[in-house]
Amino acid sequence: MGAHAGLTVERITRAAAELADRVGIDKVTASALARGFGVKDASLYSHVKSLQEIRTRVALLATEEINDRIASAVAGRSGADALTAFADAQRTYAQQHPGRYAATQLRLDPADFADTEALARSVELTYAVMRHYRLDEPDLTDAVRLLRSTFHGFIAIEANGGFHHPRGVDGSWQRIVSGLHRLLESWPRTAQPARRA
């Protein structure tokens, strides 16, 4: 097909995302992508700088897709309903697109996505769900970190087949999200320093 095989950054990113879902983000290589397009590696690198850039672009694509799902799921909801919709949207996406979801957990260079809106929108959606709980800093950051750790931990263990107990994982997931809601409702507030008159 040659170097002008209709390659674009968008087509490369989409192909990498689809490959990641099939074989895992860690197995996405320039050679595998080039083979899929019927070109040599050098043709790929005339559009992207590195494998790291490809993985970063997959992570950003996945973040945008997750954002869209979350925005749709939480629209018009608040409190426990919003938290459940927020959590379920992430878990369902991870089940349907395991490689893309795994890409969102990679350690990325902030400079590579400084000019994108995906991460800022992700933060905005998270804080919109958290507004119901009326947490100030540093409690808000601590609570968001708890949610991220819990959701990602569960999703990662589930993806690796790590839950061996006969109890169904869906029931556990629902109870965990419900428990997080109750915890957030009664979050122990950090004492704020007294203001000087």
TrEMBL record:
Check the record and name the InterPro entries matching this protein.
Homeodomain-like_sf (IPR009057), HTH_TetR (IPR001647), MT1864/Rv1816-like_C (IPR025996), Tet_transcr_reg_TetR-rel_C_sf (IPR036271)
Asked if the keyword Membrane belongs to this entry, the reply reads: no
The entry's keywords: DNA-binding, Transcription, Transcription regulation
Q: What is this protein called?
A: TetR family transcriptional regulator
The entry lists its GO molecular-function terms as: DNA binding
Pfam families linked to this entry: TetR_C_33, TetR_N
What PROSITE patterns does this protein's entry cite?
A: HTH_TETR_2
